[in-house]
Each structure stands twice: as C-alpha cells, then as structure tokens.
Amino acid sequence: MKLDIYTLKGKKTGEEIDLPADIFEAPVNKDLMHQAYVRQMANARLGTHSTRGRSEVRGGGRKPFKQKGTGRARQGSIRAAQWVGGGKVHTPKPRDYTKDMPKKMRRAALRSALSVKAAENEIVVIDDLKISDQKTKTMVTAMDKLVGDNSALILLSEKSEQEEMVARSANNLPSVKTLLANYANIRDLLGYDKVVVSLKALDVLVSYLGKEERVK
To answer: Can you give the pTM of this predicted structure?
Structure first.
C-alpha cells in the first residue's frame, strides 16, 4: 500500500512510501482485537473498591432486644445487613483484574488494528515532526491541514527535544493525543479517527511489529 508523504504543514512532499504489507495489510482478526482491548481496559482497573461486611462494621456487640415477647422479628445485632448502618452482603472487595495475553497475540492485534486503519485511509504519514515554536496554535493549524475535523493520534519516534515540543504543543488539544510509537496500543489506535505517524516513528513500528509470525 502506497501513501503520500506530507509535511507537518499539510503539504505533500511529492514522495510516496510503500507501507509494509505484513503490518498494514495483515489479516484482520476482530476477536483478537477485542481480546486485546478487554485486556487493556481490565489491566487499567485499580481494583481497590471495598465495602464493609457484618464483621467489619463498628458496634452491634449486644442483642438489641430480647428474643421473645416483643412481637417483633428476632434480631441478633443492629449491624446485620437489614439494619441501617449494617454490614453489606455480596458487595465488592479488593481484587486483581489483570489479564494475561501472549506477546505474539498482542502484537498481532496491533497489526490488525493498523491494517484496519490503513484500509480505511486513516493513516497520515509525515516526513518529520519538527515545529519552529512551541505553541498550541501551531499544532491547531497543522492538525487542521492534516486531519481536518477528525481526532488524531500522533505517534512519536523518541523523546527528543523536537518531538517533546510537538507533544507539549498538542497537550491542550482535546481531540489530539501524542504517544511514543513503541507504546502503541489497541485502545488508542481504534479510539482516534486518524493516526499521524512520522517516517522515524514508522521505523519504530516496523522494528517490533514486522519480525514476528502472524497469529491466525
């Protein structure tokens, strides 16, 4: 698949790049992408939710009233679940939501996501991520030229001074996110309309997604 190369100002350089077929034209496995997405969302959960059971609520050490003769239902403690202020039953306790997924499967899911983006013409390749000044206005103009009204995920190649300027300039844009290419993940790839990738960032993607066998 060949794509035109743009500058950060939205102009074509006159050159094209042939995207690696094993990454951007891989078989799309929807089940695998769903599994990777569920895993990522589950691993982001803290699992710190907690409620107090009957044995953890303060008070209720004595029987509230005698067993017989009152005409009321028998009660053993004012901290039972049916009392206001009592302990809770079958409610959340701290737990670990972490899910495992083999590395080959995770990377195959990324290849599927990138292939979907490429097939729908949602990948924009630029020659370099360089801006003359660190201003939000500069990135607003650049994104308007490159992606229009669409949301965009900008993949960075490294933590260089120039690319850090791009990241800081895009921080205030609600529909734009910057991310290191080696941190590419299924949620961000599918959560933004366009993926803006520089030639250097493309090399990073190829370095770790283009050398493994695909998971069928």
So the answer is: 0.82
